[in-house]
Amino acid sequence: MPRRGTLRVHGHGGVEVALIVPFLEDLRRAYSSLFVFDSLFTEPRLTAYWAEGLYFGPFGAHSGLVYQLSRGRGLGIKELETFIPLAERLTLQRVSLSSPGEWDFIGALNPLEVIRKSLNDHHERRKDREYREAAESERLKLENERLKTQVLREKVKLAKELGATDADLAPLLNKLVHEPLRALGSHQTVGLIDTAELTPEADNDGAAS
Known about the structure:
The protein has 209 residues and is of the alpha+beta class.
């Protein structure tokens, strides 16, 4: 079972329900997409996908998903969640909607870490006056920063060592990483949420690792 943690997203109360519902939907999609990405990019599956050029071979339940994503096709949230065990799906633990307020979510650690870094990087970049004047440039910079997250960096590095090319990886990264996180970041732009922090679940001895 993947390591778990609690993601605390800082936000604001006194906002319209019409803003909250899309935020929760985009967070759910971002988490589910990243969970699937993390699951796909484990060593046994990567070896099957890329070793000896068998990238689209029939290797388990994920093969059809990889094929669909490689063609630039999106997946519905219900399709994504068929690859996620019930116990690992994102759970809302607590909400405090004062100003400022907090949203606490429990889930697998790796997807939550990528979300945390993406939200914090996006928050910092929005402070830059040039952000609104160079949106496309900032978007590309932010996507490059995401790939520096240890979780993603190690996965991409392993895939390339096994023979994956940038062209192979681009549709998977776009559909499972960049696009969902870009949608989530839009809720910072409208001022619904701000930064995030992540607390890993304690080990059996009571200490967080």
